[in-house]
Amino acid sequence: MKKKTILSKKIIRDINNSINDSDSKLDVNFLNEEKYYNYEIEEWYGEEFGIKGELRKKIIETLIKTYFEWKKELDELNKEYYLAIWLYNPRMLKSEIVCAIDEKAKYYENESFLASNKNSEFDLNQFGVLSTELQKFTWDRKIDLDSVHEWEINFPKEQYESEKKYNQDQKFYNKLIREKFHVVEKDKEKIYFHPKGDVWIGKLN
């Protein structure tokens, strides 16, 4: 428990530093050139880390604050745009703000996630005092997918750190191939996608 508390505080510091370093500011020049821009909550701490308490509060506050700051700037562009909170659950550290214009706005609106067939109602009460702010948004439930490339599946056994790890991965890969949840082919290589949870897409009402 102590290790999780220390890690939570470190992530909160890193989020604050990213805000202070203007990482969360909208780069309009980049947006005009690339047609999209995003701000990610740091994600390299481990997807299984339980997010709650002050860290969850900080993530939600940062997402909401960034959304409204970007919306103000995007409204001044006098053009249609896509702007949304991508709130991942349980992989909350992957959450981000995403905006796009022109042709990429249509992509993010219609093609960036697979629809979920689960109950589409978002339980906002779990977020305490932030529930009021979150209720300003319309939330759409999608599937949070992770991917495995063919080269990973075919990774040589002798290059594994242990036979146990190799066997674990092969068991997972065989299940992945057998189920074929979602498979795409890119550059003559298959990519296997598997669900990791939900991603809630929030846009202002």
Structural commentary:
The structure is a single chain. The protein is of the alpha+beta class. The chain has helices spanning 2-20, 28-34, 53-75, 102-110, 131-134, 150-153, 163-179, and strands at residues 36-40, 81-89, 96-101, 114-115, 137-149, 182-186, 189-204. The protein has one domain (2-144, 197-204). Strands 1, 2, 3, 4, 5, 6 and 7 form a 7-stranded antiparallel sheet that branches. The chain starts with a helix and ends with a strand.
The whole-number mean of residue pLDDT values reads 88
Number of helical runs?
Answer: 7
C-alpha end-to-end distance: 39 Å
**What overall geometry do the principal axes of the alpha carbons give?**
globular
Please give the domain count. 1
What is the strand content?
A: 25-35%
Radius of gyration: 19 Å
Task: Characterize the largest beta sheet: strand count, sense, and whether it forms a barrel.
Answer: 7 strands, antiparallel
Computed structural class:
alpha+beta
Series of H and E elements: HHEHEEHEHEHHEE
**Strand runs, count:** 7
Spans where pLDDT lies below 50 across 5 or more residues: none
Helix content: 40-55%
Strands, helices and their partners?
Layout: H1 2-20, H2 28-34, E1 36-40, H3 53-75, E2 81-89, E3 96-101, H4 102-110, E4 114-115, H5 131-134, E5 137-149, H6 150-153, H7 163-179, E6 182-186, E7 189-204
Antiparallel strand pairs: 1-3, 2-3, 2-7, 4-5, 5-7, 6-7
Provide a brief overview of the structure.
With about 200 residues, the chain is α+β, with helices and mostly antiparallel strands. The protein has seven helices and seven strands.
